[in-house]
Amino acid sequence: QVQLVESGGGLAQPGGSLRLSCAASGPILGLNFMGWYRQAPGKERELVAGIFSGGVIKYGESVKGRFTISRDDVGSTLYLQMNSLEPEDTAVYYCNIKSLQRPSDDYWGQGTRVTVSS
């Protein structure tokens, strides 16, 4: 079973920056998609950004140009650099990894809260 532990959330002012980290441990999933999702109060969970194991990156439209996702060389740690934060970025951010070969291999972290407020 894969375990994901997020860190780096907190309070930031509008225009500020935060960096999230997600450390993965457990079995290697092979071809996979690892990403950050967020859920604001009263809203559905949405994809923020993700990386396929082959290196292709996807960003949600609302964060393009402001957020940068990266992954370490062994693929076990995922990062999200968030710049030019807006109050609308306030949410709980979740790390996720899913196998592209076995749909049942789909794991979530516990979430880290990001609040953007002056």
Question: How are the elements arranged and paired?
Answer:
Layout (H helix, E strand, L loop, with lengths): L2 E5 L2 E3 L5 E8 L6 E8 L6 E7 L4 E3 L7 E5 L5 E6 L8 E9 L6 E3 L3 E5 L2
Parallel strand pairs: 2-11
Antiparallel strand pairs: 1-3, 3-8, 4-5, 4-9, 5-6, 7-8, 9-10, 9-11
Give a concise summary.
The chain is mainly beta and 118 residues long. 0% of the residues lie in helices and 53% in strands.
Task: Describe the structure in your own words.
- The chain is mainly beta and 118 residues long.
- The protein has no helices and eleven strands.
- Strands 2, 4, 5, 6, 9, 10 and 11 form a seven-stranded mixed beta sheet that branches. Strands 1-3-8-7 form a four-stranded antiparallel beta sheet, with no helix packed on it.
- The mean pLDDT is 94.
Strand content: over 45%
Q: What would the principal axes of the Cα set say about the shape?
A: globular
Instruction: Output the helix-strand order.
Output: EEEEEEEEEEE
Share in helix:
under 10%
Mean pLDDT reading: 94
Report the radius of gyration as a whole number of Å: 14 Å
Q: N-to-C terminal Cα separation, in Å?
A: 40 Å
The largest sheet, given as strand count, sense and whether it forms a barrel, is: 7 strands, mixed
- Unreliable sequence segments: none
- The SS-based structural class is mainly beta
Tally of helical segments: 0
Total number of strands: 11
